[in-house]
Amino acid sequence: MNEPIRKLVRVDCDAEHAFEVFTSRIDLWWPQSHRRHDGSVMVLQPAVGGIFAERTAAGEELRMGEVILCEPPRAISYTWYPGAVTAPTTVEVRFFDNGDHTIVEVTHSEGGSGLGQAWPHRAQVFTRNWGVVLPAYEQMVRESLRPAE
């Protein structure tokens, strides 16, 4: 098995809020540039068996994965079909309270994807994509904590 991708971000809130923004508010922060359809809605249902999907304006649901572990507000793990060959890769997100902030750790692994020797190349693509997605998440957390004007 190849080495997984690991990314860490720090957000200035408790783990409960960080988890809620990551899951229930995913449509507000997931970048438009990382969606297949303009005007789509992203859905991540925080429960085992819940879906991770993009819903088009026409109502078509593009499933990107399924939640395989959900322990609010500490962890969520889901399968990830985009870029897979025979089976999905796996994304695990952990939330660690650290005083006045939370460390969010994302581990994206080969899982049962069948990528094998193709994993290092795909891992580079996934790494670049997380480099866009996670800053958008961090920004949404910051904005969600601002006092109403």
What is the secondary structure topology, with strand pairs?
Blueprint: E1 5-11, H1 15-24, H2 26-29, E2 41-44, E3 51-55, E4 61-71, E5 75-80, E6 89-98, E7 101-109, H3 119-144
Antiparallel strand pairs: 1-7, 2-3, 3-4, 4-5, 5-6, 6-7
Helix pairs in contact: 1-3
Order of helices and strands: EHHEEEEEEH
For the residues shown, what is the average pLDDT?
Answer: 93
Spatial shape: globular
Strand segment tally: 7
What share of the residues lie within helices?
Answer: 25-40%
Instruction: Quickly count the domains.
Output: 1
Number of helices: 3
Spatially, the strands of the biggest sheet line up as 1-7-6-5-4-3-2
CATH architecture: 2-Layer Sandwich
Poorly predicted residue ranges = none
Radius of gyration: 15 Å
CATH class: Alpha Beta
- The CATH homologous superfamily name equals START domain
Percent in strands: 25-35%
CATH topology: Alpha-D-Glucose-1,6-Bisphosphate, Chain A, domain 4
Could you say which structural class the secondary elements and strand pairing correspond to? alpha+beta
How would a crystallographer describe the biggest sheet? 7 strands, antiparallel
What's the N-to-C terminus distance?
50 Å
